[in-house]
Every structure is written in structure tokens, then in C-alpha cells.
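Page 37, top half.
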Amino acid sequence: MAYRLTYTSTRPDTSADWYFFYETADAGFETNATHFRNWLDARSDVTVTLTVAEDNLSFKWELDFADEAAYDAFVVDRTALFAAAPYNGTGHLSETAYQNYLTANSMTEDIATGEV
């Protein structure tokens, strides 16, 4: 059965940009996020879908895998990726600057996995 990783972020209003578009976002975050997206785009074992709500108050990344074993293999690869440069042990969504920005702007994130 297919397996999905879903990352959802929400914000209370549009007064603050998403961190990905924030003009003074940490340059390291931008570098790491781009590096991750390029790594993800090069993979043939995952299908990625981005959905932005019509009111622009939430967005959702869905990463679909053939099954849970394929997802587990992806996690092993992602863990190895985040252990190396440029991440050096911290995936970009776990970076302090990103997490602080979410908190300061009352934005939330939710990460869920499961069969679909």
C-alpha cells in the first residue's frame, strides 16, 4: 500500500511571509532548502506534491512512496544527507532560525506519515 509523508504549515494571517520567501531569512536555510529540493527532485522513489490553500494561510507538501519500505529507505538516505555538509546534523526545517520565525509569527507545522 502507498505511503505518504505530509508536511503542513499554517499561519494566522498573511502579515508575515512564509519563511521560504522572507527577505532576511537565514542564508544557510536558503542554501540548505535549495540543496534538499534538488536532492529530492533527483530521486525516482518519491512523488512530491505542493498544495497552497486558496486563502494562502496554509501549504502542504506531500511526499508519496510506493510503500512503507520505500519510505523507510528514504528516511535512511535523508538521515545520511542531513548528517553531511551543508546540514552538519540539522535538517533545514529543524534550524533554530526557522523554528524561531515560526514561533514569533504564530505559524505552526505538522509532520505526519501513514498509508494512503
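Page 37, bottom half:
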Amino acid sequence: MANYCFTAYRVVGKSETLQQIKDAINLEPQSDTFNMERILNRLEVPTESPIGLGGDWMNAEIRLIDGVEVLCFDEEFRYNASCNMELIAEMPPFKDAITGVYRQ
């Protein structure tokens, strides 16, 4: 039996970038597995290899926390966290638009 990892992601950055990522995440079928490569393709970011294949997650939403817009989504995956938002934040389209990635 797999060990399950529940990870809460919080991403800070430019409002329009957070909205684009949120919309791309929410287009993923809920019955499918979270696939960051498909999400990046929707955002027209070329990928050479899969960046996190993921598991199940809750819909992404943007919340106002202490006056700052924050993209929030939660993931449930077997064994470990799979979404590599830290790597995504370093990709050219997001490097200057994402200012912080936090997970717990």
C-alpha cells in the first residue's frame, strides 16, 4: 500500500500569471492524474521532459492573504510531492512573474 503525501502549494507573483496558471490547472480533468506537463503545454511553455506527474488535487484558487494575491492548490500523491513549482518558477516565462513558491 502506498504512503500518501498531502501537499499544500502557495504561489506568489504577478496577478495575471497566477490567473493563467489557475485556469490551466482547473482545466485538468478531475478524474485524471495531475499532469504538470499538460498544464505547461496549455500555457504554451515548451517542456523537454515531464515535470511532475502528480496525483489528485483540489481546484486551484486565488486568495487574498494579508493583502497579497496567492495562488493556492492542494495535491494528494502517493509517496511524495510531485508538482515541481520551484522548477516551473525558474522557467523563462515565469522567472520574473513568480516571486515565491511555498509548500507544506
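Margin note: The helical segments are 15-26, 36-42, 85-89.
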